[in-house]
Design goal:
Number of strands: 15
CATH class: Alpha Beta
Shape: globular
Largest sheet: 9 strands, mixed
Structural class: alpha/beta
Helix content: 25-40%
Number of domains: 1
Order of helices and strands: EEEHEEHEEEHEHHEHHEHEEEEHHH
Number of helices: 11
CATH superfamily: Ribokinase
CATH topology: UDP-N-acetylmuramoyl-L-alanine:D-glutamate ligase
Radius of gyration: 19 Å
């Protein structure tokens, strides 16, 4: 990633495009039987911006849409706590009931032992899903204001028939202004089930791929299938992924490709690592075996945030993938979609510090 512009007069280091939902977390209970929830904000593309700002201290903004009611302003208040710039949020008038537009909700339980984590989204007809080309002045975002990096992904593009067109419009504008573009394939069956399934997701992703510099995530959503991933040691998985990545890079000319490596032994015990391709070489992060998981949601987004931070600050690829993997691992030790850790804790984990109490 030697083509990234150095920090200059641009307003942001990264701009993300995606939906921000209100997450309802039942803690150690289940969604279907709890009587109380904690709430957080979250969303795949937003999580990357928040991690880059909250943990790594770079300037990040979110492009999204929220309905102008109490729920939307609760999400806004949570975004304030993460420090992500809200000036690009599109506010939609509330009709009193939510017939025309609403805010997305996400109910997520963590899982324990042999019981897997469970997510149940309630996000039909949301304000973000109704974004369409022309709603955002992308030339102002990347030209007038300026951002070194643009990030979006398959979750946003799975919301409706118009959201891929918005992503394409944004990518084309980013390219015009020399902004690096990243895309997380992030396939979710629930988003595509009624809209053509994985085949349709693959078609959308392949249309957008020529405008992408850095690709993240589940490469099968781009048509590069693997055998079952969960049954093999991470190093075996990494070797097979290398072949797929080389094929992807050959077809789409990506500058970099990256993914986490995971083996869920149980919902609360995982092996976790990461792999990155760039500058003609592969770089693999330290594998953390038998990692104890508190909440698995958002680890891939945290990995992306750490890797992007490394690239934006001119670090070597190996250092960048280590930052991403350490941030992803630490994010699984706290509740909610987003990182609650500091840059110092990320560096301490990379350096091998023990987890004893810090006083």
């Amino acid at each position: 990633m030697k083509t990234i512009e150095p920090k200059s007069g641009g307003r942001w280091d990264l701009v993300s495009l995606g939906e921000v939902m209100l997450r309802f977390d039942p803690g150690d209970k289940r969604v279907s039987t709890t009587r109380s929830f904690d709430v957080y904000e979250g969303g795949g593309e937003y999580n990357v911006a928040r991690g880059l700002k909250r943990c790594f201290g770079l300037n990040a903004a979110i492009v999204t849409a929220l309905v102008d009611n109490a729920i939307g302003h609760l999400v806004q208040d949570l975004i304030y706590q993460g420090g992500v710039d809200q000036s690009l949020i599109r506010w939609v008038e509330f009709d009193g009931l939510g017939r025309t537009a609403r805010n997305g909700l996400n109910f997520t339980e963590r899982g324990f032992g042999v019981r897997a984590a469970l997510g149940c989204s309630d996000r039909g007809h949301t304000a973000s899903s109704q974004l369409k080309p022309g709603d955002v002045d992308w030339d102002a975002v990347f030209g007038t204001h300026g951002s070194r990096w643009f990030h979006t992904g398959g979750i946003f593009c799975g919301l409706s028939d118009t959201t891929p067109e918005v992503a394409l419009e944004a990518m084309q504008a980013a390219k015009r202004h020399g902004t690096v573009v990243s895309y997380d394939l992030n396939y979710r069956d629930s988003l595509w089930r009624s809209r053509g399934g994985k085949k349709r997701a693959e078609q959308v992703n392949r249309r957008l791929a020529p405008f992408v510099d850095v690709i993240f995530g589940d490469f099968s959503a781009l048509g590069f299938e693997m055998t079952t991933r969960s049954e093999r040691p991470l190093q075996v998985l990494a070797e097979e992924l290398k072949e797929l990545i080389l094929a992807m890079v050959k077809e789409f000319k990506f500058k970099a490709a990256a993914t986490t490596l995971r083996k869920a032994k149980t919902a609360t015990i995982n092996d976790f690592g990461a792999l990155c391709y760039g500058d003609g070489n592969f770089y693999q992060a330290t594998t953390r075996s038998d990692l104890q998981v508190f909440d698995c949601v958002g680890a891939g987004d945290a990995f992306a945030a750490g890797l992007i931070y490394g690239f934006l600050t001119g670090r070597e690829p190996q250092a960048s993938v280590e930052l991403g993997a350490a941030h992803g691992a630490l994010t699984m030790t706290t509740p909610g979609d987003n990182s609650m850790v500091t840059m110092r804790e990320v560096l301490q984990l990379i350096e091998g510090a023990e987890a004893g109490i810090a006083r």
